[in-house]
Amino acid sequence: MICKLIDFKIMGDERSSLIALEENNNTPFDIKRVYYIFGTKSGVRRGFHAHKDLKQIAICVSASCKFHLDDGKNKNEILPDSPNQGLLIEGLIWREMYDFSPDCVLMVVASEYYDNDDYIKDYETFLKELE
Ligand code: TYD
Questions:
Q1: Is 13 inside any structural domain?
Q2: For the chain, which residues score pLDDT lower than 70?
Q3: Within a domain: residue 113?
Q4: Sequential DSSP letters for the chain
Q5: What is the Å distance from ligand 1's center to 35 Cα?
């Protein structure tokens, strides 16, 4: 598998489940940014980029979506469909997200602030960057 899945410990009690993310305790990097994607329309495919330096953990905190991951040699399809699983994406990985269920909330924890210059949005440039 190209990217690793991290299992987060579920805490809580008879009322609810609860997961806490703590910088460098159960995340392997300093957290600078958290964003989430929700209300994704049917049939949408997004992503279509790699990052030069960014590390991310993607968690479907509600429902599910699929990830297409590509390291230039191998390709994987991954379905992180549990709020206690995080998909760790680091290094040069081309990613696309698709098959969002209507109630999907995809939360992403990231190691850097948003930086458009860190994106590689062209697949051929991505392959060249790997050489
Ligand atoms: P984009 O990275 O293209 O989303 P995806 O890769 O999931 O398809 O981001 C969509 C828009 O949101 C784009 O205009 C940039 C903006 N954006 C921010 O301002 N901050 C962020 O942290 C992110 C992820 C996106």
A1: no
A2: none
A3: yes
A4: --SEEEEPPPEE-SS-EE----TTTTSSS---EEEEEE-PPTT--EEEEEESS--EEEEEEES--EEEEE-SS-EEEE---STTEEEEE-SS-EEEEE---TT-EEEEEESS---GGGEE--HHHHHHHT-
A5: 9
Domain hosting 88: range is: 3-8+22-130
Q: What is the CATH classification number for the domain harbouring 120? A: 2.60.120.10
Q: Which of 49, 83, 96, 99 is catalytic?
A: 49
Report whether residue 32 contacts ligand 1, using a CB cutoff of 6 Å.
no
Q: Is there a domain that residue 65 lies in?
A: yes
Ligand 1 centroid to residue 15 C-alpha, Å = 35
90 CA to middle of ligand 1, Å?
17
In a domain, 81, yes or no: yes
pTM: 0.95
